Amino acid sequence: MATMREVAVAAGVSPKTVSRVLNDDPHVSPETRLRVEESMQELAYVPNALATTFRSGRSPVVGVAVPDIVDPFFAAIVNAVEERALAEDLSTLVISLGHDPARERAVLESVLRRQLSGLVVAPTTTDHAYLEPWAARIPIAFVDRAPGRLVADTFIHDDRGGAHSATTHLIGHGHTRIGFLAESADTPTIVERLEGYRSALADAGLPFDASLVHFGATTRPVAAAALEALARPDGATAVFSADARCTMAAVPALKAHPLPLVGFGDFPLADVLTPSITVVAHDPAALGRLAAERLVERAAHPERRLRRRTVLPVTLIERESCRTPV
Amino acid sequence: MATMREVAVAAGVSPKTVSRVLNDDPHVSPETRLRVEESMQELAYVPNALATTFRSGRSPVVGVAVPDIVDPFFAAIVNAVEERALAEDLSTLVISLGHDPARERAVLESVLRRQLSGLVVAPTTTDHAYLEPWAARIPIAFVDRAPGRLVADTFIHDDRGGAHSATTHLIGHGHTRIGFLAESADTPTIVERLEGYRSALADAGLPFDASLVHFGATTRPVAAAALEALARPDGATAVFSADARCTMAAVPALKAHPLPLVGFGDFPLADVLTPSITVVAHDPAALGRLAAERLVERAAHPERRLRRRTVLPVTLIERESCRTPV
DNA sequence: TTGTAAGCGTTATCAT
DNA sequence: ATGATAACGCTTACAA
Q1: Alpha helix (H) ranges present in B65-212?
Q2: What is the pLDDT of residues A295-317, one digit of tens each?
Q3: Is residue A188 domain-shared with residue A260, that is, in the same domain?
Q4: Which nucleotide is nearest to A23 (CA to C1')?
Q5: B272 near A CB under 8 A
Q6: Which of A292, B9, B140, B264 has the lowest CB atom count within 10 Å?
């Protein structure tokens, strides 16, 4: 691995001149430039990006931390961030948080030590006070889930409103006992959606029945058991599935327990299933795009005042599954 | 941002001693250690990972380059690599190659300049001679698609065999005119699968008819048009879809043109659709895991001789779509 | 137009 | 057990 110094010696110039050639500095005579370029060729010189990065004090990398990249929702966020980052000549470091909250802090602090240019986080925990000192130096944006105990740029969906309209939609179909299916009671998005569900019931003068709420239904067996329980005579006559993983897990069990269902979060082929699934659609790519955009903006104008919280609207897409099967 | 030098001054020791404390060097007296630790606390010292990285000459990062992380197949590869990398305290840099082959070289060389610890690539091009000089210093493993004009560790599936058995399966159902649907004729995996399809036909004494081969069917309209063409009287009586994107794009059109179909690549909910889709299943996570494992092994034992090429078996999962609808 | 000197923050080497 | 010095490869500031 040839260094700049070696190229300089070979070309009979100083390292600085090699640097100038490399960075297209106009203050180099054509002959010198040529000689340097030849030496670079001969020595197969490749600049060591680590040195440049170190010198500059900032790594041209944005981090994106998500619970799980295999989930198409988070994959879309990562993809959008990467796309925007690339336009700024930034690379993207992906951090899978996993569904274990204990890992989050250690993993994030470890990447932040690398002097990132920015960080996008879809967190799995609810206390982000530990990011406070970092946020002062590195732009950090939260997506999908708001930070806890920390003021930071946040891009989320209207979880509460979406859940409210999904529930109201089922109520409009005449249902008074509606089941609630979700992944985990600790996820901020789920908390919001549960709120939306409850407020929709309240707005319709319907009681909230905790026995109709099922958490952890992310696998087919669990989702099937939940649907079976809900399908009992004293159970529910319809279901609101508060996240796409649960909806996808519940779909097979719908054959045995054909309850009307609305899901939060669209997913591939939802419109092709039998029945096709009515969903509240949201836009993960928009979250990623906006967050990355914000990082860039914060880096360019650290002093500028911007709205911290952006809430994206969601849309109910009515398909077949919300209607009672005949 | 306090530096090690500042901590040293505060604690009244030399920077090297601070370094020793940081790295748990036993040659530090308990009192000194304590004093240093206090100073670190006071100054809220955080080591600058960029400096350490630069000093070491190697970045604790593995790159993973895939055509598209939103594709669950590639997401699974990335995920598996990240998981394995994490066990070695390595971060994962994701590089989306996109479906534009022109980008590959520039993007890969740019990240390689960062002195990665390793690189996993699912390439979009077929000539990788430009990686030769890099491969001498950095472990590079290819996944899903073999490299062209370069000898490197390669982990792929039995594309040809899988396509052969899928086609043979349809032939076994009495079909003699079988359509072929795929993304792009240039993708190495597709080339192999086309070969497998052709050889299965040949083995059964059936002619190959180029008019039954449709490329670019990755979107619903294109896939629908292809199926419509195939469904004509002089067309095909069954279809082999050579990749999951095409299969998913073709599914909706199956309602209008209910041709028996076998797809290469399983996908979420394939078993729940009506009809459920018969597929050749493969294992992207295994590719990622093996490739990452290999990078680690190459780094640890540069001299060791290992089999360059690993071909993973695939499995036909028979569901409903391979049978003629009644 | 070109070069010199210094430094980014950490660690290896060699003293003491 | 601790420290002085140099070095990693590049770029900035300042000179010539």
Answers
A1: 72-87, 101-112, 132-135, 159-172, 188-203
A2: 999 999 998 999 999 999 999 99
A3: yes
A4: D11
A5: yes
A6: B9
